[in-house]
Amino acid sequence: MTVLPPATHPTQYWHSLDDGRIQCDVCPRECKLREGQRGLCYVRGREGAEIVLYSYGRSSGFCVDPIEKKPLNHFLPGSSVLSFGTAGCNLACKFCQNWDMSKSREMDTLADTAMPIRLAETAVELGCQSIAFTYNDPVIFLEYAVDVAKACRDRGIKSVAVSAGYIHEAPRREFFQYMDAANIDLKAFTESFYKKICGGELKNVLETLQYIVHETNVWLELTTLVIPGENDSDAELDAMTSWVVENLGPDVPMHFSAFHPDWKMQDTPATPPETLTRARKIAMQNGVHYAYTGNVHDRSGGSTFCPVCRELIIERDWYQLGFWGLNNHGCCHVCGTSIAGVFEATPGDWGSRRVPIKLLC
């Protein structure tokens, strides 16, 4: 028997204004809505005297991925993760690589039904160790993501958030209470970039990063899509990576990924591989222990090395693991240095497969 999601789902992060509008309080955009209006994210809108969620229990598709694709290099390496998203986004990034889902204004995009318990059971059935809210930002479908994470926790499945971290304080506390790992897009390190390119603010994202590291047990990794002429200068990369070490610590992995022309930035050239290598070098010079290149074939840049003796710890060729140099205590096999992360005694064997699936509800 198919369990259909509700047409709308109640939410709690909003308040009424004196002028008759209702303000959504999930993110710093603070959309102020009259009857029938939707926020910029499009999946939260006003119905009567409240803000509701339109995408609860609905997805744009499901896929089993390697966890390294999120990317998470220090969280259950080699394991498989059940990945899904919905539609919409609360930022307006001109370079969006998933624009067909994140910018969608069509509920028909959400053709797949997936209520929380069924999703958790599916992860168990498929042998996935975790479930990832990805493809678009889970902040905007917070209630759905939290309910899925609760169902997963009951069944021993971890929850992973792939997000831009653009979220207000109260919902931030609730959301990350139920996450086990997160990859946050640190899109740049200037307010001008966030305002001009993303329609957001850097300040709030930095607050989210500090909250995750200092007030939760969530494993955190960062990703920066390096865009030629926009956020790839030595000065900006130096400032960003120095801030990470000083405010988050040297053990937060950083991923520098290659941009390819897309959405509203199709005239911007793709990122040269040497730019990513330069970014990685700057990060390591500033004390980042684990810096990676992404979206390019770079075995060295994708592999994990001991921050003390520099011996190879985890070899990666794209998403395929090779040499495994962690001992049973999660330490370097050569010098015994503890390697930061969430590891098991042996790596998973999912490999680089990406398997789309259809849920039978």
Number of strands: 20
Mind describing the biggest β-sheet? Answer: 9 strands, mixed
Q: Given the C-alpha coordinates, what overall shape results?
A: globular
Number of domains: 2
Instruction: Show unreliable segments.
Output: none
| Structural class computed from helices and strand pairing | alpha/beta
The strand order across the widest sheet is: 16-15-14-13-12-11-9-8-20
For the terminal residues, how far apart are their CA atoms?
A: 7 Å
The CATH topology assignment of the largest domain is: TIM Barrel
CATH top level assignment of the largest domain: Alpha Beta
Strand content: 15-25%
- What is the N-to-C order of secondary-structure elements (H for helix, E for strand)? EEEEEEEEEHEHEHEHEHHEHEHEHEEEE
* Residues in helices, as a percent range: 10-25%
* Named CATH architecture of the largest domain: Alpha-Beta Barrel
Compute the number of helices. 9
**Corresponding CATH superfamily of the largest domain:** Aldolase class I
